[in-house]
Amino acid sequence: MIVKRAVSILGLASMLALVGSGTPPAVAAAQAAPGNSEIKIDNFSFVPPVVKVAVGTTVTWVNRDDIPHTAVSTEKVFKSKVLDTDDKFSYTFTKAGTYPYFCSLHPKMTGQVVVQ
Ligand SMILES: [Cu+2]
Q1: pLDDT (tens digit, 9 = 90+) per residue, 9-45?
Q2: Ligand 1 mean position, distance from CA 62 (Å)
Q3: Fewer Cβ atoms within 10 Å of its own Cβ: the N or the C terminal residue of the chain?
Q4: How many whole angstroms from 65 Cα to the centroid of ligand 1?
Q5: 10 and 59 share a domain?
């Protein structure tokens, strides 16, 4: 009984860990090769506010807040539609540079994608 319960708790914990992390930590830390990177929008913030990615990386913004937000490039490189809760927006960065962006509904919300 006790063993069985421990196993099911572990199973649940690993499931939650999988759901919670969009990108495996090893990949996020290395950032050597292009791939995918996820930015969460929550509590009126872009998390993390600055991401560094390789050229060719697709960045996906996911709205985990319970109100709508957008992700709009300051230099008009990309522009999401209004993202409702759990909506996503993706953009593939094909040129190196620094790409500041903000939420057009709440302009104090800002972030940066640095493409190397
Ligand atoms: Cu917003």
Answers
A1: 444 444 444 444 444 554 444 455 788 999 999 999 9
A2: 12
A3: N
A4: 9
A5: no
In the reported structure, the alpha carbon of residue 83 is separated from the centroid of ligand 1 by a whole-number distance in angstroms of 9
- Its pTM stands at 0.72
85 CA to centre of ligand 1 in angstroms: 11
Q: What distance in angstroms lies between residue 84's CA and the mean position of ligand 1's atoms? A: 10
Domain shared by 38 and 21, yes or no:
no
Task: Write out the residue range of the structural domain in which residue 107 sits.
Answer: 33-115
Is the same domain home to 38 and 20? Answer: no
Distances (CA, A) of 14 to 7, 10, 18, 19, 20: 11, 6, 6, 9, 10
